[in-house]
Amino acid sequence: MAFTISFHKPSALTNTVKILKRSLNTTRVLANKQMTVRDALNSAMDDEMERDERVFILGEEVAMYDGAYKVSRGLYKKYGEKRVIDTPITEIGFAGIAVGAAMAGLRPICEFMTFNFSLQAIDHVINSAAKTFYMSAGLVNVPIVFRGPNGAAAGVAAQHSQCFGAWYSQCPGLKVISPYNSEDARGLLKAAIRDPDPVVFLENELLYGNQYPITDEVLDKDFVLPIGKAKIERKGDHITFVAHSKGVELALDAAKELSSVGIEAEVINLRSLRPLDINTIIQSVVRTNHIISIEQGWPYAGIGSEISAQIMESEAFYHLDAPVIRVTGADVPMPYTKSLEIAALPQINNIVDAAKKLLGV
Amino acid sequence: MITLTTKNVSAVHNTLQKLTSTWQCRNLATEATFDIKAFKLHKLESGPNTTVTITKEDAINYYKQMQYIRRIETAAGNLYKEKIVRGFCHLYSGQEACAVGMKSAFRDQDSIISAYRVHGWTYLMGAKPVEVLSELTGRIGGVVRGKGGSMHMYGKNFYGGNGIVGAQVPLGAGIALAAKYLGTGGVCFTLYGDGASNQGQVFEAYNMAKLWNLPCVFVCENNGYAMGTSSERSASNTSYYTRGDYIPGIWVDGMDVLAVREASKFAVDHCINGNGPILLETVTYRYSGHSMSDPGTSYRTRAEIQAVRMTRDPITSFKEKILSTNLATVDDLKKIDNEIKIEIDQAVIKSKEDEEITLDELASDIYSKPIESEHRGVVPWQKIKHVRIGPAFNIV
Ligand SMILES: Cc1ncc(C[n+]2csc(CCOP(=O)(O)OP(=O)(O)O)c2C)c(N)n1
Ligand SMILES: [Mg+2]
Fold first, then answer.
1. Residues of chain B with C-beta less than 8 angstroms from the C-beta of A300
2. Which end of chain A is more exposed for a tag (fewer CB within 10 A), N or C?
3. Would you please indicate which residues of A are annotated as catalytic (active-site) residues?
4. Is the ipTM above a cut-off of 0.85?
5. Which A residues 75-114 touch B at CB under 8 Å?
């Protein structure tokens, strides 16, 4: 399931064409090289382990089983048990050990089998990892990556289907990344591992197996993406969609559908939830005058709420022709029931309808 | 089977037992006595009996219950393969003797809490097989209306059905605390796996349970693996029955329903006599992979699984006991097997035909006493009415 950036002919409504401005790390499809998100993450860890002896992985089933979702496949074989460590099921214990190791000069990648289980360890993520640099007046660094699948998977009910984007983004001291495709996954994980601060890296199980086009540049051993920069996945002048992770996929699909009725949506892939690239959002809103945020997490105090508030606090507010709309997961715990699970998560048609409503068409 | 509803269940039960033991039956024995594998004890002077007498009625009952669980699990596995059961699906096949043995020691006031491998327990705690299977298919006839699925099933005195490994352990100690506080005389069987036993909160719960003398029976169901990690690779001390330190413990052959029964009765007595918590380690085996997506053969050999099936299977070995002591005939058991098969086959059909709850229930039972009447849907103008379906069995 590849995506390509399609440049649309300016419709009657659009008079300025800015499509030629492309960011440096273009995703323009040169060759038909494809990579799954899983392989992108795997190759990122492999590169960084090769590059830096201090990088090691620990977590449940990461070594001999190759990872519960096979993200660390082959790494135990290649790097051995010193650097790829299977832990018992004891999140608060191994997260604490990882943070301690980071304080003392190592660069741990701490895998949570899923982020639902990071709740067992959240004290070490917040109190030990995020706040130590500040509390020590810059004396003690905590270069650690907490990573694993986040958000709703399919049919796994309430305790296993939650987005922690808003939870972790609320805490100063953490950098929070939520990649969408293979380029994001590879470039941002490599950046996260190299970063001297604690990074929470929120993957999505349902995207692991997806293939995305990838360039030679992305495959380069020194390819990294800047943390804190969003990417415009699709240009458009009528309305801005801002999303992260799986939400980007929904936004792109909705944009495609809207395009057939002459509405061109700009799709911003946040990539990073903290810092939030509010400037890219503002610049887009100034042009489109309409914005919808899209996320799978709960609405209450969610990522969309933050974006909406930051827009209100910026000049972008004066450029809005209509209120900000948040398309989110429903405000309910996740049911197992299939039809209810669908209703609890944002769908393409919800975005399409919201956009039409906002634009008054 | 006789159902007893009176308060003095045990008195009636004792009389019945005396009666049955004096009955003379020409062809079939009415009871039989077995020697079971020795228990290993930790901080206990003496343990459960190793010479066990069992009535015909009990024997048939245990056999039936184990067969029901095995059949339910086979059906669940098939429904998963047909993609009707979604998400996770953790099967209990191989571990039946643990649940059936424990349940046989339960009195009306006793409770149980476990992790996500609970299809069998749900059935033992009173759900019909069709209610278990319909939960798996996510339909309205399921024990929790299809909202919980494989991992989250509940019932009276059955507190789930928990998806977070180890989290049920302090909850179990809390249920025991409530029993003590309310003076119900009940104990709580608090179950967790060999993998879960490494969670810090397990040790926190041990400490408080002992400190406060809570009537809690901690049960570590040691099936040798936590997903792909064998117990030796995750625990510095694999003698799980000793890991409560100051809490007495018993090692139990979890493949022998009678051994589990004796140990469980002993544990209940220990608790209700005011001795505080006790820890059982039931050594058992899971035949299937961890969940249905795990083939279960990369971290152990097929030969290992086969060897357990051949030599330690809880149902086969118990069947042999029943037959060799003349408690039942081959035909009796065949008849039971057939009846169960027919019932489960029908339950499978029903669980597939059943409807899902409607979207009106998307915001059902989020609160017991909701303060706001509506919850936001996926867009601001979509409001979902909060509805109460309940009724909670723990609040009267
Ligand atoms: C806190 C937490 N961490 C990790 C998981 C993922 N997980 C589910 S089951 C399991 C293995 C548990 O093994 P064990 O306790 O031995 O129970 P068994 O599956 O053998 O019955 C793991 C790691 C989880 N559900 N919760
Ligand atoms: Mg286990």
1. 376
2. N
3. 91, 160
4. yes
5. 86-93
